[in-house]
Amino acid sequence: MRTSRSLRARLTALVTGAATAAAAALLTLGAAPAQAAGTPLRDLAAAKGKVMGTAVTGSKLTGTYGEIASREFNALTPGNAMKWGSVEPTRGNFDWAEADRIVTFAEAHGQQLRGHTLVWHSQNPSWLTNGSWTSAELGQLMKDHIALEVGRYKGRLATWDVVNEPFNEDGTYRQTLWYNGLGADYIAQALTAARAADPSAKLYINDYNVEGVNAKSTALYNLVKSLKERGVPIDGVGLQAHLILGQVPSTMQQNIQRFADLGVDVAITELDIRMQLPADSAKLTRQAADYKAVMNACLAVSRCVGVTVWGFTDSDSWIPDTFPGQGAATPYDENYAPKPAYHAIAEALGGTTTPPPTGACTATYSVTSQWNTGFTGQVRIACSGAALSSWKVGWTFGAGQRITQAWNAGCTQSGAAVTCSNASYNGTVPDGGSVTFGFNGSWSGSNPVPTVSLG
Ligand code: G3I
User: Fold this and answer.
1) Angle, in degrees to the nearest 10, between helices 281-299 and 252-261
2) pLDDT tens by residue, 213-245
3) Site to substitute for ligand 1 among 308, 318, 321, 322, most atoms within 8 A of C-beta
4) Structure pTM?
C-alpha cells in the first residue's frame, strides 16, 4: 500500500530571531515515510527508455532499503562489492557473496546491472598493490582478473565500468599501478579483454570531474575518439557527477552531446550533490534544482542512457566520511524520506509535480532574557494541519554559546551542536497545538540566533 502524501508528517521549522524577529530559515523535513507518492522513478524512466539507477550495498538489501531500491530504480550498481579488493582479498581466494547477492536481487526485481569496476587505482587488494610485477605479469594479472570477473557474470550484466578514473585534472594520465606498469595502452587491453569475456556487455570508461567541458573531459574525449578510430571496443563513457551544491557545470549537455557525436553512449554513473551541513530548505531547494538540471542534461541527449545516483539515501553515502561536515547529497534523507531532490528527479522524468505539504509544524527559537554572561531562551513547537507524537529540535550555536540547564526537554550539547528531545510528558503536539521548552545558557561577545531544525 502506498502511503499518501497527506499522511506523511511534513515538518517545517520556522526560525525567528529574537532581536531581528525576521524569519531566518524555513526547513522542511520528512518524518520517515517509507514510500513516496506518485509513480516510481523506474517506471517514469522506463517510459522514456532511460536508466534510473542507484549504487547499493548488498548487505543492506532488506527492509525499507531493499523496498526503495527495488521499487524506485531499474538499475543497480554495486558500490563496492565488485571491486578487486572485495572479490579477491587474498590472491586466489575469492569472495563473491555480496556481488552475487546484488546480482540476484537485481534479477529478481527486473533491474539492469552496472558492473563496477574492473581496472582502477583504488580499492585493489594489498597483494596486488604491494606486489612487484614485471610488465608482462601485470598485464596478465589484469587480463585474468577481467576474464574471471566478467566471465562469471557473462550475459547477466548490462554494462561494465571497465576502466575507472584514468585521468588527472589537467588531462594527463594518472600515474597508477596500471599506467606505470603497462603504459596508456592498458586501457585498450582492458577493454579488449572485457569484450572477449562478455561480448554483450556495454563497456565504459568512467571518471569524475568530466561532466562539463574542461581539460579532463577533453582528454577523455580524445581518448575515446582514438580508441574508436583504432577499433578498440568502447561503448560508452560514464560521467560520475559527484557534484557540489550550485555547481552543475553549465556545459554538461554540450559535453554529453560531444561524446554522443563520437558514436558512444553516455551515462551519469555516480550522481550525488553534496552540501555543507546542516541542510536547510534553501539548500535542499537548490539541490533539487541541481538534480533536475543533471537529469535534463541527460534527457536532452538521446545517447545519454540514464542516470545512476551514488546511493539513494543519505544513510548510505560516502560523502560524510570523505568530506567531513558535508553530506545530505542523495535524494532520500537518512530516514528514507524523499527530499525535494527526489521530487525533482520525478518531475524531470515526466512525473506529476508533488503538491506542497498541506500541514506543517514549526519550531521558533527566541531569547527571552539576556544579561552580561547568561541568557534564557525558549523554543516553541507549533503545529497546524499536522501533528507530532514526538519531537527533536537541533541547532548549532554560532558564537560559542553553551546550554547550562534546560526544562521541558532533554538537551545535549556536543561542541556547538545542540539537540533537544521531548520530555516523557510533552512529545505530543496536536494539530493546532503547541509545546514550549526553555533553557539557560552562557554567552560572550555576541548571542546570535541559530538556525533550528525540527525532525
Ligand atoms: O569494508 C570495510 C569495513 O570492513 C571496515 O570496518 C570499514 C572501516 O572504515 O571500512 C570498510 O571499507 C570501506 C568501504 O568503502 C566499504 O564501506 C572503506 O573504508 C571506504 O574507503 C570505502 O569507500 C568507498 C570509496 O569508493 C573508496 O574510494 C565508498 O564506499 C564508495 O562509495 C566509493 O565509490 C567511489 C567509486 O567506486 C568510484 N568513484 C568515486 C566514488 C566515491 O569515492
Assistant:
1) 20
2) 999 999 999 999 999 999 999 999 999 999 999
3) 318
4) 0.76
